[in-house]
Amino acid sequence: MKKTVVIYGSSTGTCQSIAEKIAAKLGVEAIDVANLNADAVSEAENLILGTSTWGAGELQDDWVDGLETLKGLDLNGKTVALFGCGDAESYGDTFCGAMAEIYNEIKDKGVTFVGAVPTDGYTFDDSEAVIDGKFVGLALDDVNEDDKTDGRIDAWIDSIKGSL
Fold first, then answer.
1. Residues 6-18: pLDDT tens digits?
2. How much of the chain is in helix, strand and coil states, percent to nearest 5?
3. What contacts 53, CB < 8 A, 6 or more positions away?
4. Phi and psi dihedrals of 113, rounded to 5?
5. Of 86, 22, 90, whose CA–CA distance to 52 is shortest?
6. From CA 1, how far away is CA 56, in angstroms rounded?
7. How far is CA 45 from CA 1, 128, 145, in A?
8. Which class for 80: exposed (0-12), middle (13-18), buried (19 or more C-beta within 10 A)?
9. Least packed by Cβ within 10 Å: which of 40, 123, 134, 135?
């Protein structure tokens, strides 16, 4: 596997826990986006980016500056996988929408996205993170469906591992 880093933004600890789980399964480092620096991104060939979703589908706060850092760097040729945390019961109309914010900000930077996930098996009303019937990355509802989290992570890692 090429040099890979997991970068996450977490306010309550849920996204951090998931990021650390993904990083451990891949044997790579997890970095809080609040501590992101250009070197960590430049040295990696693969970026796994995770965020929680707040309010009406907004990014986790630390990602605002993190996205500015990413947009200012040369991402051409990098492979990117996204994951997001949301609450499909309380925020079913914006479920994991923050993934779409990251996706939209870097999609024209020469990156290759991997890890889109079919919406089958999910219960939600709407999400900006769904494009052509799939989430742009791994969507997790660790609030209402924590019993599915580990299985979804394992299946997703299996699906992206060959691309990393």
1. 999 999 999 999 9
2. 35, 25, 40
3. 59, 60, 84, 85, 86, 87, 91, 94, 95, 96, 97, 98, 99
4. -90, 140
5. 86
6. 36
7. 10, 27, 32
8. buried
9. 123
| Superfamily in which the 4-161 domain is placed by CATH | Flavodoxin domain (3.40.50.360)
Query: Residue 10 in contact with residue 60, Cβ under 8 Å?
Result: yes
The answer to whether residues 62 and 9 touch, using CB atoms and an 8 Å cutoff, is yes
Its pTM stands at 0.96
**Any idea what DSSP says for residue 37?**
-
One-character DSSP codes across 129-140: TEETTEESSEEE
Residues 129-160 have pLDDT tens digits of 999 999 999 999 999 999 999 999 999 999 99
Closest CA to 125 of 83, 82, 84, 87: 87
CA nearest neighbour of 99 among 66, 143, 76, 130: 130
Task: Find tokens 């706060």 and name the residue.
Answer: 61
So where are the chain's domains? Answer: 4-161
CB 32 within 8 A of CB 16: yes
Q: For residue 39, what are its two tokens?
A: 């070197």
